[in-house]
Every structure is written in structure tokens, then in C-alpha cells.
Amino acid sequence: MDTKLKTLLKKSRFVRFSVKAIRGAIIDIRVLRWWAIRPHAIRAYFESNGPKGLQIGTSRSLMGSWLNTDLLPTNREVVYLDATSRFPFRDDQFDYVWSEHMIEHTDYKSGVVMLSECFRVLKPGGTIRIATPDLEVLLGLYSKEKTPIQQRYLDWMIKRNLPGVTTCKEVFVINNAFRAWGHTFLYDRATLSDAMGRVGFRDIKFYKPGVSDEQHLQGLEKHGDVIGSEEINQFVTFVIEGKTPNSKRTVDL
Questions:
Q1: How far apart are CA 5 and CA 149, in angstroms?
Q2: How far apart are CA 236 and CA 230, in angstroms?
């Protein structure tokens, strides 16, 4: 195909709209299929023995003994779930809910809906665990004096995601964190802790990836493997846990 014609087609609004419409239709068809087979997968999971755990935003990080869910399931072992709407579960069904690098892909209001649904489906005394990028760490990159790990993170991000940037690296990296990978709202510890507290979670604690006081929640995080650097993951990620009270009451938002 002629180069000029290719360029013209790329700029065409009609072509761009048509491509988006086709992709959207394909996703809609897949969602209908996932929605149709979901009840059987959920029923089969709850017929199994052992503690019940819900993973939200599985992607390719499948976990045995957990109900793996995602908005766009990658294989048959992952159940379709839109975490920003009501979950297809009864109240008090899970012992644990876990989500890694997912909540930042929703806006704040939708994130609170997700947290509220997690609270609803957790049993009294159940635990939620969320891993997400730390806004305070990212904004800290703007400091004039860089620590060794801050400098390594900047260099790593530039090499991996922003080739060609040679000056003002922190500005480009911070802006990229807000815009890249489908990020919508980045949390610091205080904001996510407040949101969890408002929907009813108590005994809120912070951890490094892989660390927990509960054995069932230790060593879960896989983001370091996904990005190819556990050091970078440990630097930029914080983990928060919260519990549902033994006498649980769902909060109306």
C-alpha cells in the first residue's frame, strides 16, 4: 500500500471510529459469553473446600485456591467481573479479597464502589489486601536531592518507557505515572485508608509487597515479576490491609 495512503487512513476519523467500533463489538460479544458461563464457575468454586479468596484484576497472575476474576479474562480459569459495579456474590461469602495494581485503573468514585462491594462480600472478620502505586513516592521524585533508589527508579523508567528523554527526567516520569497503563486515580496511603474506613473496614495496616501478618496473604504480589524488577516494585508499591468487624454492618454510600 502506498505510504501516503497509509498515512491518510491513519488520520481518517472514519477509519479510527470504525476500528474502535469493531473492537468494541468484539469485546461486547466476549462479555456476553463470559457473563453466561460465570454462574457455573462461581458455583464450582464455592463447592470446593478451604478458605475462600477473591482476586480482583487477575490478568495473567493466576492463584490456586482463589477465585480469579478480571474485566477482560485471559483464559477459562478467570471469571468475568466488573469491579466497579455490584459483584455477583451474596453477602459474607469470602474470607479474603486481594487486588494488585488494579484500583488505580478506576476513578475515585468507582474505587469506593469496589471497596464497598469487597466489604459486603467479605465475611465478618475477613481481610482485604490491596497493592497499588504510592503517589507520595512518585511525587517525591521531584525533590532536588535524589536518593540512590530514586535515581535508579528514574533511570529504569526512562530506559523502559520514555526513551529519548535526557533532561527533566522526574517531570516526564511523574506525568507518565498519571497517564500510562490506563491509570485513572493514584492514591497515597492516607486517601486509600480513608476510603476503606468510610466503607467500614477497620484495623487498617500497611505492608511492603509480599509481607503480611496473615500467612494466607504472604507472598501474593507478582508485580515485580511482571515488570522485571522486584526492587522497583518494592520502591513504588504500597500494600494496605483492612478487616471487616466481627459485627458487620454494610455502609450506605
A1: 47
A2: 10
How much is the pTM?
0.88
The CA distance from 189 to 132, in Å, is: 10
- Structural domain includes residue 161: no
Going by C-beta distance under 8 Å and a sequence separation of 6 or more, which residues neighbour residue 3?
Answer: none
Residue 166 forms part of a structural domain: no
CATH of the domain at 114: 3.40.50.150
Q: Using one digit for the tens of pLDDT, what is the confidence trace for 159-207?
A: 999 999 999 999 999 999 999 999 999 999 999 999 999 999 999 999 9
**Looking at residue 4, what is its pLDDT?**
57
Cα separation values, 189 from 106, 162, 185, 210, Å:
17, 27, 13, 17
pLDDT band at residue 36 using 50, 70 and 90 as cut-offs: confident
Q: Rounded to 5 degrees, what angle do the CA atoms 37, 87, 132 make? A: 110
Q: Same domain, yes or no, for 65 and 115?
A: yes
For residue 225, the SS3 value is helix
Instruction: Give the number of domains in the chain.
Output: 2
| Shared-domain flag, residues 12 and 128 | no
Please indicate, yes or no, if residue 18 is contained in any of the structural domains: yes
Q: Which domain holds residue 30?
A: 1-48
**129 and 216 within one domain:** yes
Residues 102 and 66 in one domain: yes
Amino acid identity of 10? K
Q: 237-250 as b/e, with b when 16 or more CB fall inside 10 Å?
A: bbbbbbbbeeebee
Q: What is the distance between the alpha carbons of residues 33 and 113, in angstroms, rounded to a whole number?
A: 25
Q: Compute the mean pLDDT over every residue in the chain, rounded to the nearest whole number.
A: 90
